[in-house]
């Protein structure tokens, strides 16, 4: 069984602060916190960059909350 990391766990595993990783990802700390709290979902390019920064395979990182995915899917169906 593979270990899965939340965004926060992955960041802390690498020893980075929210501010440091936000800068590395090219976003504000507030925006990064929204990702870490699963209020937003990473675009695929940012997800790959995040995985590279924390040095954890992308498949071992939990990038979205299924409830957020459901909200996004519902929103796109009504658009």
Automatic annotation (TrEMBL):
<protein>
    <submittedName>
        <fullName>Putative transcriptional regulator</fullName>
    </submittedName>
</protein>
<dbReference type="InterPro" id="IPR001387">
    <property type="entry name" value="Cro/C1-type_HTH"/>
</dbReference>
<dbReference type="InterPro" id="IPR010982">
    <property type="entry name" value="Lambda_DNA-bd_dom_sf"/>
</dbReference>
<feature type="domain" description="HTH cro/C1-type">
    <location>
        <begin position="7"/>
        <end position="61"/>
    </location>
</feature>
<dbReference type="GO" id="GO:0003677">
    <property type="term" value="F:DNA binding"/>
</dbReference>
<dbReference type="Pfam" id="PF01381">
    <property type="entry name" value="HTH_3"/>
</dbReference>
